[in-house]
Amino acid sequence: MSKPLILVTNDDGITAPGLRTLVRCMKELGEVVVVAPDSPQSGMGHAITLDNTLYSKRVVIDPEAGAPKEYSCSGTPADCVKLALQELLDRRPDICVSGINHGSNASINVIYSGTMSAAIEAGIEGIPAIGFSLCDYSWEADFTPAEDAVKKIVAQALENGIPKGVVLNVNIPKTDKAGLKGIKVCRQARANWKEKFDKRTNPSGKDYYWLTGEFQLLDKGEDTDEWALSQGYISLVPTQFDLTAHFAIQDINTWNLHEH
Amino acid sequence: MSKPLILVTNDDGITAPGLRTLVRCMKELGEVVVVAPDSPQSGMGHAITLDNTLYSKRVVIDPEAGAPKEYSCSGTPADCVKLALQELLDRRPDICVSGINHGSNASINVIYSGTMSAAIEAGIEGIPAIGFSLCDYSWEADFTPAEDAVKKIVAQALENGIPKGVVLNVNIPKTDKAGLKGIKVCRQARANWKEKFDKRTNPSGKDYYWLTGEFQLLDKGEDTDEWALSQGYISLVPTQFDLTAHFAIQDINTWNLHEH
Questions:
Q1: Which segments constitute the Survival protein SurE-like phosphatase/nucleotidase domain (chains A, B) (predicted)?
Q2: Which residues numbered 198-257 in B keep a CB inside 8 Å of some CB on A?
């Protein structure tokens, strides 16, 4: 049996330490091909490039023997996955992994996440997909404590398959190996960002803003990703791209929409 | 009682004809403030501006009496809503409407939609929100046949409230007034885009790609947005930003994740 083909991507860019960790882990599980943005794309959500040209080139990040095939791409994470599937890969990948993101994509952050948008793009194409994020925004973050868990989750996904229409959102707490308690399957916590705009004036006298904010956890449940992370667990949330709020259909069907 | 405050935004930019139609309709229902991108932002998904400055300025698009307060913003649709809520509006809006988009945001297009990301951003902040789209990509599209339905839906949302955690995704078929059959509450159809990259070579000999694609409807259900649109109905899908695939939690809890 041939080794599984693993497509690796991210949103922090092809040279990010989190991606290099993921590549190292995935090489133990299969044949790796990397297609990742040539520059950081954080906060891109599920953006795609419609009005601009896309460039892609073969790059060598790690010149040692057995290094994977790697391509950088001028587009967004979702563009990388589309380009990989249609143009760059010889065969359909067995799984797509995205990350490891420098920073949390738990709770409502999943909505803004380029890391998860790449995984969701693969999921839409019917390919099993997982986004990984470490709750540490630093470029020098230590990804090594999570390596065993990352390999375990991908190996289990390859063995069991991921349910159709579902993409996994895995977040890893910032802790050393001894602090990691295990993996918990969770639901997405309800939360939002309390924005604060930092208003400044540029040298020519024009006002501008920087977007800053504070994360507000509104959900006291002990079955959420935020709760698991706070207790030292890796959170695994099965995530879907059918956004229908089925529970609301009955309610809205009581509205007065049909008279003329 | 004071008139409801209606925040209007979009992703095609503040001068787009679809937004001008929405503004005209909303002026009949309340006090309108417009905060919209200064340039087209289609396909931006739920992008936010983290690494760049945001500019915003008061603009006058329509100099006639009773014209709404309008601001253009250099950011994405989600940025516009954040900036409106935190900096530009005097009070919390009663509803946020986004659109009318030039092009469909039905089915899987909701994932890539800047129009819907603006509405979802408002929804995350607890503000009732609706995204409107016309299934006609042309800049000269005729938005008038849909005006009555747009007003009816917003009036009903103001009267009944939208369930918590839900944002409405409304799509309007391309047809004349006589062809419009009514409004149907639907679920999101399963579909994807069959991408085709158009590979070209630039004048300096470097390869580049244009992203093109063909919409593939995979769902034969007669309760979907795509079905409703094909029959001449306006589709209304209640959409949620809790992406948890609750049905998959049991399945993934059978995986071997807990041994050491």
A1: 6-195
A2: 199, 202, 206-211, 236-249, 251-257
